[in-house]
Amino acid sequence: MEKIKSLIRIFFSRDFFWFIVIGGINTLNGIVFSYLYSLFLDANFSFVLGYITGLLISYLLNSFITFKERLHFKKFVKFCISYIPNFIIQNLVVILIYNILGWHKLIAYALAAIIGIPVTFLLMKFFAFSKKTSGRVRPLEKDGDSFSEPYYLSYESRYRTVYAAGATHWGHQPDDPVLGSMLEDWVRENGLEGKNVLETACGEGAAGVVLSRLGCLYRGLDVAPSAVEKAREALRTCPEASVIEHDMVRQPVEGSYDAAIDVMGLHMLVTDLDRECYLKHLYDALKPGAPVILIRQAYSPDAFEGRVETFTQWQSLTGEDYVTASERSAYGACGAIKVMLPMLPARPKSRQGYLEEMQQAGFIVDAFTEMEESVQCLHTASIWMHKPC
User: Fold this and answer.
1) When comparing pLDDT for 179 and 123, which is higher?
2) Confidence of residue 92 (pLDDT cuts 50, 70, 90)
3) How many CA atoms lie within 13 A of 349 on its CB side?
4) pLDDT of residue 14
């Protein structure tokens, strides 16, 4: 039942909406080009040429609008492959409607273009524009004899609960003076204006708004779909910015970036393997010499520094309750809103623990600073580092 619900949600998503819009444009393109070609060529052959022309336009539009991906030859090939079932179905429809039933060719072209949309969308989403995991892969969390979703997806549940209660946002905002000052200094000192800056675990996009205002070409990633939608809304006036749903633990990052930031993201991972995969994918996404800043990461001088293999082990070590809800404050249009929320997993580290972890990931640490207390996390630290040249 849950799989059916998940499938239904896909067809009510933003991605499917834009796929339908672009599909409408592509349908019109296919009909128009097929008809134009048919003025000089055989009707069936004209349909094939019109289909190919529309396919090229569709790839461009779906890359830039629906899935917000950069153009890549390998993705284009996968995109074309994902359309093969649709192509076969449409050709059969044309043969049936035009050749056998003798209907007008425009009707045949139109019906053929409409049929097969759901199948094509699923193939595009999970094949053409999917992000495969490479390197070290974190397995699904095992609970008894069954596998469940990763513990860090509980952040999606929190976003949904907060928004359902009427809150407009949960995390830090673009007008955060500390965040704004830190990013302004960082961008200026590293000459990042006009450069490609990646934010992992971007949340609701607050840092993305600040970086975009400072002239950076921003790309945000987050595992929580609700946060991604909120971030896109916050960045709708920033044409050079983009945000996509992405699991940094399981998926490598496509592209190469001049710099990267993480605001309260890494500390939500409690097992060592999760953190190692996350940092590896971050490291691989950066150009040599790229600066990185980790902002407001959970910090404790007495943090446990042993290896944590599973989430169950972490729960046993800390004794923390991630089920019972307590009253917390979120932010609405008219002020604070009280919401009942359970605690979320977050793993603090000591100064030495962070330094060793970053060095093992291949980074060179430039500075480590304890931060003042904040609403989201009382005891935090920020780390400035860079990838070796």
Assistant:
1) 179
2) confident
3) 28
4) 58
Whether the pTM exceeds 0.90: the reply is no
Q: What is the DSSP letter of 193?
A: T
Contact 192, 216 (CB under 8 A): yes
| 150-386 topology per CATH | Rossmann fold (3.40.50)
- Closest by CA position to 130, among listed 200, 60, 198, 69: 69
- Token couple for 131: 């992000």
Residue with tokens 């499938």: 7
Query: Where would I find the beta strands (DSSP E) of 206-324?
Result: 217-222, 242-245, 259-263, 291-298
Render 28-64 in DSSP notation, one character per residue.
Answer: HHHHHHHHHHHTTS-HHHHHHHHHHHHHHHHHHHIII
Nearest to 123 by CA among 226, 19, 49, 28: 19
pLDDT mean over 244-250: 94
For residue range 64-73, list pLDDT tens digits in order. 776 556 677 7
**Domain parsing of the chain, residue ranges:** 2-128, 150-386
Q: What is the gyration radius of the CA atoms in the chain, in angstroms?
A: 24
Alpha helices in 62-114 (DSSP H): 73-82, 84-94, 105-114
Could you tell me which of 373, 372, 376 has the C-alpha nearest to residue 330?
376
Handedness of CA 285, 288, 291, 294 (dihedral sign): positive
Strands 196-200 and 380-386: unpaired
**Above pLDDT 70, what percent of the chain?**
81
Sheet strands (E) in 207-324: 217-222, 242-245, 259-263, 291-298
First to last CA, the chain: 51
